């Protein structure tokens, strides 16, 4: 009987540690949810479940998913024992704070100032864009928190730098999309007339978050290589995803052009186009360079 095949079977202690990390993970999700409830100046339960505010629900769900995306690499940390739990708790709190700050930035970018108290007044178009940025931000944080570094100091610095660069890239991408032909927004998004454009833009932003996973994730090998790789992958990824939208317009949705979809605010073709962009980005983001 060969006992070597049982050498990798987890011990009860390892099962217990895994369960504890999952518990901390869930508690951090609950903490962000309750913190937003406390920070808003309205009754969140009433807004979501009595008034059935769909735009607000989109934003809240996107925040939760973004936080979950960001924290998943921390569940795989294997330094051992309480060190794993401490790492998850410390970085998890950092992600929580970062996502709240991202929400404030997005409020400014999509012309809905007022922070968390403005999200319940957003149109679905603004909510979809916010949701796209929050999901993409979670993917950026997820990438930044993966891999190893030579020291704790470099790990903290590289995580912060690449997370900020990734978020800046998302804001820049959203801003540039607003000037590109069919993506061009006709005005404020609070009247709901830009929902189709918002859906396509959100798809590109989430796709860009997936592509940036290639640029940011992995072990830290030096600032020059890291920054250059990020810049090249970000620019190439953004151009590729915008090109993919036009290819989908030509080959998949042949009954109407993207200009018509955006101008007529046709939601279903926009959803199909956005989903295809994300699907392509999943493939691109999975390529190991």
Shape: globular
**Extended strand count:** 0
- Spell the H/E element sequence: HHHHHHHHHH
Tally of individual helices: 10
The rounded distance between the terminal residues' Cα atoms is: 42 Å
Radius of gyration: 20 Å
Average pLDDT number:
81
| Largest β-sheet summary | none
Proportion of beta-strand residues: under 5%
- Total discrete domains: 1
Contiguous low-pLDDT stretches (5 residues minimum) are: none
- Class inferred from helices and paired strands: mainly alpha
Task: Describe it.
The chain has helices at about 10-40, 45-50, 55-75, 80-110, 125-145, 150-175, 195-215, 225-250, 260-265, 265-285. With about 290 residues, it is mainly α. The termini are far apart. Helix 5 (about 125-145) runs antiparallel to helix 6 (about 150-175). The chain has one domain (about 10-285). It has 10 helices and no strands. About 70% of the residues lie in helices and about 0% in strands. This is DUF350 domain-containing protein.
Quick synopsis:
Pfam families: DUF350. By secondary structure, the protein is mainly α.
Write the layout of secondary structure elements.
Layout: H1 12-39, H2 44-50, H3 54-75, H4 82-109, H5 124-144, H6 152-177, H7 195-216, H8 223-251, H9 258-263, H10 267-285
Helix pairs in contact: 1-3, 1-4, 3-4, 3-5, 4-5, 5-6, 5-7, 6-7, 6-8, 7-8, 7-10, 8-10
InterPro entries: DUF350 (IPR007140)
GO cellular component, one term: plasma membrane
Protein name: DUF350 domain-containing protein
Question: Any descriptors?
Answer:
289 residues; mainly alpha; 10 helices; 0% strand
């Amino acid at each position: 009987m060969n006992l070597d095949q049982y050498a990798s079977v987890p011990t009860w202690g390892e099962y217990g540690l895994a369960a504890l990390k999952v518990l901390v993970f869930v508690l951090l999700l609950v903490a962000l949810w309750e913190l937003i409830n406390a920070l808003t100046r309205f009754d969140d339960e009433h807004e979501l479940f009595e008034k059935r505010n769909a735009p607000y629900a989109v934003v809240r769900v996107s925040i939760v998913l973004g936080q979950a995306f960001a924290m998943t690499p921390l569940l795989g940390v294997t330094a051992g024992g309480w060190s794993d739990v401490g790492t998850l708790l410390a970085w998890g709190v950092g992600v929580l704070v970062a996502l709240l700050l991202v929400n404030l930035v997005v409020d400014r970018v999509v012309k809905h100032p007022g922070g968390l108290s403005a999200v319940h007044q957003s149109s679905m178009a603004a909510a979809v864009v916010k949701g796209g940025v929050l999901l993409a931000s979670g993917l950026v944080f997820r990438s930044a928190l993966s891999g190893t570094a030579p020291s704790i100091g470099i790990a903290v610095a590289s995580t912060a730098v690449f997370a900020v660069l990734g978020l800046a890239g998302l804001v820049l991408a959203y801003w540039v999309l607003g000037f590109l032909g069919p993506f061009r927004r006709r005005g404020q998004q609070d009247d709901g007339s830009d929902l189709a454009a918002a859906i396509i833009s959100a798809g590109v932003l989430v796709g860009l978050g997936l592509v940036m996973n290639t640029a940011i994730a992995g072990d830290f090998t030096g600032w020059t290589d890291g920054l250059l790789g990020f810049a090249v992958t970000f620019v190439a990824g953004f151009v590729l995803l915008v090109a993919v939208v036009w290819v989908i317009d030509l080959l998949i949705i042949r009954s109407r052009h993207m200009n018509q979809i955006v101008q007529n605010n046709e939601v279903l073709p926009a959803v199909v186009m956005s989903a295809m962009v994300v699907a392509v980005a999943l493939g691109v983001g999975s390529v190991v360079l």
